[in-house]
Amino acid sequence: MKAAPGRRATIGETTKSYIRRQVIKGEFKTAKAAHQYLNGLGYTIGYSEALKLFKSMNFRAKIKAKKPLLSKQHNERRLAWAMAHKDWTTDDWRRMTFSDETKINVFGSNGCKYYWSRPDDVLQPRHLDLTVKGG
């Protein structure tokens, strides 16, 4: 039997399966975490190889969706406000003034937050970036 062409894989299927499970569970949030784990096991791979490993397992980096951190009391107040104003006319809404504050970062961006997910995965709470007013 003829050997398959190309270089042999350095990471075994068992290790790949473990890494896949850890990413799905949310234990490995970044490719850097998987890279450090593999280096701890004695694999000599670079960070870019860890990224390729994630992509070969059909994981894609996605941007976390921003969602306000609302308590049950916040939701109840929002619903009460909406119910109190549901019968307003267009003229009533024109008299209403909405204002919004602008947040300016002095020392650069807060950065974009990512998570790893497969195309058929459902959205998990850890895939959301919970935001609060003023930050």
From TrEMBL:
InterPro entries: RNaseH_sf. GO terms for molecular function: nucleic acid binding. Gene3D superfamilies: Ribonuclease H-like superfamily/Ribonuclease H (3.30.420.10). This is Transposase Tc1-like domain-containing protein. The lineage of its organism: Eukaryota, Fungi, Fungi incertae sedis, Mucoromycota, Mucoromycotina.
